[in-house]
Design a protein that fits this description.
Structural class: alpha/beta
Oligomer: single chain
Distance between the termini: 55 Å
Shape: globular
Largest sheet: 7 strands, mixed
Number of helices: 8
CATH superfamily of the largest domain: Glycoside hydrolase/deacetylase
Number of strands: 13
Helix content: 40-55%
Number of domains: 2
CATH class of the largest domain: Alpha Beta
Length: 248
């Protein structure tokens, strides 16, 4: 066989191998999980129903609402959502999770108290018609005993561990999040979201009270909240509840 023919065959095979490698890289990138954001709301303040819920509906977004299970009407002298209102949100694709039975720090409970709290909070909410699979620890407090007991009843838990989650490798019982405080402005929060989009990460934003004014440390104004939603829309990051991400 002539040398030129051998050279042509070698070049042809090299091109085929290169194309195969390129196609593998493209396929790998296409199959890699895309960035996602979850919006979570602790305590179940009335404003989550009267202001947050309709506003997010305008954007086509849903969130995860963590309820205190004992059915109280107020928390920290602020009015809470009713179970009927929360059920309406669930019927419109929101996820409802447990925020414990009475919002006590779980690490301060005895082993028996811890077992009763985590089990009964789930049972009480499920008896109200909620589908409960996730738990947010009050004050973000947890230890080995809390995690062990949580795994018996819940699919996932969200303590207060700062950061974003790697969609290909995360601990569902130690979900990282970024909790929003009065000092945070929408511009800085938007940078978090944009960075998560670039890194193809799962960012969880943790909100508490949302109202007209920011009074306490974990308050967010409705104006700032609307700007955050606008950033999410413009960033084109996918919005999912925690349960939706876990279930793929």
């Amino acid at each position: 066989m002539k040398k030129k023919s051998i050279d042509h065959i070698f070049i042809f095979l090299s091109i085929i191998i290169c194309l195969a490698i390129i196609f593998q890289i493209i396929e790998k990138n296409e199959n890699r999980p895309k960035a996602v954001i979850s919006l979570t709301f602790d305590d179940g303040y009335l404003g989550h129903y009267t202001q947050v819920y309709p506003l997010m509906k305008e954007y086509g977004f849903t969130g995860t609402l963590f309820l205190i299970a004992d059915g109280r009407e107020t928390f920290e002298r602020r009015e809470l959502i009713s179970f009927e209102e929360a059920k309406e949100m669930q019927e419109n694709s929101w996820e409802i999770g447990s925020h414990s039975l009475e919002h006590n720090s779980l690490i301060n409970l005895s082993k028996n108290e811890l077992k009763k709290d985590l089990l009964n909070s789930k049972i009480l909410l499920e008896n109200q018609g909620f589908e409960i699979s996730t738990l947010a620890f009050p004050f973000g407090d947890y230890n080995t005993n809390v995690l062990t007991e949580t795994k018996k009843h819940y699919q996932a838990s969200r303590p207060l561990i700062w950061g974003d989650n790697n969609l290909e490798n995360f601990n569902s019982y130690k979900l990282k999040s970024r909790w929003i405080q009065k000092k945070n402005n929408p511009q800085s929060i938007c940078l978090w979201i944009q960075k998560a989009k670039i890194n193809k990460a799962w960012i969880i934003l943790d909100f508490h009270y949302i109202g007209e004014n920011k009074i306490r440390n974990f308050d967010t104004s409705i104006e700032d909240f609307n700007k955050i939603l606008e950033c999410i829309k413009n960033t084109e990051i996918e919005v999912k509840t925690i349960k939706e991400v876990l279930n793929g």
